[in-house]
Design goal:
heterodimer; A: 179 residues; mainly alpha; 5 helices; 54% helix; 10% strand; extended; B: 459 residues; alpha/beta; Rossmann fold; Dihydrodipicolinate Reductase, domain 2; ten-stranded mixed sheet; six-stranded parallel sheet; 17 strands; 35% helix; globular
């Protein structure tokens, strides 16, 4: 590697050691998966399925009994941005008018998936991190109004991680785009 | 029974009042019921050769008694495949017409009879009879049907007298016909799995030391009847009823029924004996006509049984209250050193509780025998008194019944006729179970503890 500053790419300064690069990579991976899976989960639900009860040898029980077991499944029709209880409470908040919350709920799951994928692939990494921070901040506003301190703290940790990731973003590698 | 035969032609699709009363007066059922011996004398001779059935045979069925329970059974029967209801029988024209019309709407044309003997004489292709009339008619009607070569499903209690119940077992044995008694919990897969897999195989409860069960119901008014639909006084008298109110509320009168201990208790006391696989060794009971002054049977009763089990004595308490619905519904509960099983026909009351010191039940959750419901709450937050033991983790039984509660028991009966199953509650076994009810009633009346002998339970 040349010592000339002009030959060093802006995203990987010559002074960087591989620890910072790996550190950023890990943060990108974690934040990306966190958002992607959280977004996918908004399309998940459980349903009861009936299956034959089996005896010790794995054959159907002599009673012919069927048992109900829970089964998780994903479908677009399952989409639920936030739990009903949270949505109902927020609906009572005058600072959260429907014109604001309705599009937010509609986009939340999709945004989480899109931002998660963008981070994992390294698509417009800084911009994606910034958007993720704004999204988590938006979620925090609702929780502040409902005085849910545990949730606020939890999101604050996310914001801190996003901010730190932005600080380390100059060490970004293995990404589809450079910015 | 004729496999794949067309539906029987309806010879009397509608029974008008005049025809009905003619039938009733000529049948002499009331006289016959007063002296069961004469009834049997009029009974058609048993079939000379036993019919054989195959798995796909359609069975021809008749229903005797279209009161409240009969109507519940009609709904269950209509869901059973491989049977055809061909006749209904009831002494009250109003109920008979209801049954006929109800079944017609369901696509089954049935012949109507006021007298079961006439029905037996006319219905040559009948395979089985469902008996759901008042308790005191169970024995004579069932015995007649068995002697006529029909298999019988009879509602519990078998009879309002021990002698009546005993006669049914004897007739079943003499005729070789099947007699299933309507303790329908015995065919409920959730009860079967709880008894066989959880209690007997897994021994989840450890040593069972106690049991209790209850059925509490709110105050209820007497059953009435539509204007102009009362039975004539002479017909009522012929069947032993003092008046129309007694006919409609026969469960509360000693010459017709057995009261709440029999109507409600018999189902649940049966579960004591069935789950513990033992007859009670003693019984002490208290009850009284505390509220309903116009009724004969005690409206509230409390019973304590002792069961001498191989592991030690288990005491079982039963209460039936017809003046309050408080107390959490109807259920049967078995308490052991390692857990408690609470059963009910209503799945929402079914719960298992694991004692804190008992071995883990995770294996049974994995095998779908249990489903986790709630963890035990933290001891500190739940305790009021330092002597309290920790609250218990609870589990459910995930077995589902996608049928009406009587359907599996009826299906078991029909499958037994076809030779594909053993009866889940044959009359001799029901007699053993119901003896515990008869003895509880005797204890109430004598106001003393009764020591029960093994021979008491043999018909």
């Amino acid at each position: 590697m040349s010592d000339s500053p002009a030959s060093v790419p802006p995203s990987a300064p010559q002074s960087a050691d591989c620890g910072e690069t790996y550190g950023f990579l890990l943060l990108r991976l974690w934040l990306g998966l966190r958002a992607l899976v959280a977004g996918i989960e908004k399309f998940g639900d459980t349903r009861l399925k009936q299956i034959p009860l089996l005896d010790a040898s794995g054959e159907p029980d002599i009673s012919g009994a069927n048992v109900e077991v829970q089964e998780k499944f994903y479908a677009f029709s399952n989409y639920q941005a936030v739990p009903d209880a949270l949505r109902d409470k927020l609906a009572l908040e005058p600072l959260m008018p429907a014109w604001m919350t309705t599009p937010f709920y509609a986009l939340l799951g999709w945004l989480l998936i899109a931002l998660g994928l963008a981070l994992l692939l390294g698509l417009w990494t800084r911009l994606s991190l910034l958007a993720m921070g704004v999204l988590y901040t938006g979620l925090t506003v609702g929780l502040i109004l409902l005085k849910q301190d545990a949730g606020i703290s939890w999101l604050a940790i996310h914001i801190g991680l996003v901010a730190y990731a932005l600080r380390l973003s100059k060490f970004n590698r293995f990404s589809l785009t450079r910015v | 029974m004729i496999p794949n035969a067309p539906a029987p032609r309806l010879t009397s699709p509608g029974l008008d009042r005049r025809k009905f009363l003619q039938t009733l007066s000529t049948a002499g059922l009331g006289l016959a019921l007063a002296s069961p011996g004469s009834l049997w004398a009029q009974t058609p001779a048993p079939a000379s050769a036993a019919k054989t059935y195959s798995a796909n045979d359609t069975l021809n069925i008749a229903l005797v008694g279209i009161g409240a329970q009969g109507r519940v059974l009609i709904d269950a029967l209509l869901k059973v495949t491989g049977i055809r209801i061909v006749a209904v029988c009831d002494i009250w024209e109003y109920s008979l017409t209801y049954g006929q019309r109800y079944l017609k709407r369901a696509g089954q044309e049935v012949r109507a009879y006021a007298d079961h003997q006439e029905m037996l004489a006319q219905e040559k292709d009948l395979d089985a009879v469902i008996v759901a009339n008042k308790d005191s008619y169970h024995a004579p009607v069932t015995n007649d049907c068995l002697r006529a070569g029909k298999h019988v499903y009879c509602e519990k209690m078998m009879s309002n007298t021990i002698e009546g119940a005993r006669s049914m077992v004897k007739t079943m044995q003499e005729t070789g016909k099947l007699l299933q008694i309507g303790h329908q919990r015995r065919s409920n897969p959730r009860y079967q799995v709880a008894r066989t897999r959880l209690l007997q195989e897994a021994k989840l409860l450890g040593q069972i030391t106690g049991a209790n069960a209850q059925w509490n119901r709110a105050v209820s008014a007497d059953l009435g009847w539509p204007n102009g639909k009362a039975l004539p006084a002479d017909i009522l008298a012929k069947y032993g009823f003092d008046n129309m109110n007694q006919f409609r509320n026969w469960r509360w009168f000693k010459k017709h029924g057995g009261g709440p201990l029999s109507d409600l208790g018999a189902h649940q006391i049966d579960i004591f004996s069935w789950f513990l696989d033992a007859n009670p060794a003693t019984v002490f009971a208290s009850g009284g006509t505390d509220f309903y002054k116009n009724r004969e049977w005690f409206d509230n009763a409390m019973v304590i049984y002792e069961f001498a089990l191989p592991q030690g004595t288990a005491r079982a308490f039963y209460q039936v209250q017809t003046t309050t619905s408080a107390g959490g519904g109807y259920w049967e509960q078995f308490m052991g050193s390692e857990g408690t099983l609470k059963m009910s026909e209503n799945p929402k009351y079914t719960t298992l509780y694991r004692e804190a010191a008992a071995p883990p039940w995770d294996e049974f959750v994995k095998r779908n025998l249990l489903v986790g419901q709630t963890a035990a709450p933290a001891a500190a937050e739940a305790k009021v008194d330092a002597r309290e033991t920790a609250a218990l983790a609870s589990y459910g039984i995930p077995v589902v019944l996608n049928k009406t509660i009587h359907q599996p028991h009826l299906e078991n009966f029909f499958n037994a006729i076809r030779g594909q199953a053993k009866l889940n509650c044959p009359a001799d076994e029901a007699f053993r179970s119901e003896m515990a009810v008869y003895k509880a009633i005797e204890s109430v009346e004598k106001r003393q503890l009764l020591i029960l002998k093994p021979e008491d339970f043999i018909a």
